[in-house]
Amino acid sequence: MDEGLKSELQKQGVFTTTLESLYNWGRLNSVWPLQFGLACCAIEMIATTMARYDLARFGAEVFRPSPRQADLMIVAGTVTKKMAPQVVRLYNQMGEPKYVIAMGACAISGGPFKQGYNVLKGIDRYIPVDVHIPGCPPRPEALIHAFMTLQQKISDQRLTGAQRPRHLNADAQSEFPVPKFGEHDLEPASNADVWSAPAFVR
Q1: Portion of the chain with pLDDT greater than 70, in percent
Q2: CA distance linking residue 43 with residue 189, whole number of Å
Q3: pLDDT over 80 at 174, yes or no
Q4: How many whole angstroms from its chain centre is CA 201?
């Protein structure tokens, strides 16, 4: 519809929209994060929900204690190899559509513990991450910005076509293999459908 006509109709109290916009508007304003934290970034995540920053303004009023009631996982803090299977298991238990925010340098790449034998080099090796937040730790404002970025991503999603989200694609994978401890390390070392090691040309 022409924007001029839409504007004139709005002046008369007639608002027009598309089913896609209405559907996405409802979803982006009712994102329920999963209530769990892994390390120090979780303190910043908690601060974001308090009165000073009030994440509830953006529709994330309810942090759910059960993954079956949540649709956003905020991976806040260091993911050790001992904890990685539990994080993937929680992600698998979440209902579609579901999203992931990797909060802090540790969740993205291992951070200052990257060279340690016990720390995962980024949760995006096992589950798909929608928004990355750098920092050690990132401020609550950074998490709010990441949340707004995720809302924009949800708003731009199409209900049909090649650009439709994973939960509207019957062939897309919803659950990912939970890593187990093998003889030397986690097996599989990464989820091939989500992450693959970059190729270096020498």
Answers
A1: 100
A2: 29
A3: no
A4: 32
Q: Where are the domains of the chain?
A: 18-156+177-187
For 77, counting Cβ atoms within 10 Å of its Cβ (0-12 exposed, 13-18 middle, 19+ buried), the class is buried
Judged against a pLDDT cut of 90, whether residue 8 lies above it is answered with no
Q: Which amino acid is it at 67?
A: P
> In CATH, what number does 18-156+177-187 get?
3.40.50.12280
Residue-wise pLDDT tens digits, 80-135: 999 999 999 999 999 888 999 999 999 999 999 988 889 999 999 999 999 999 99
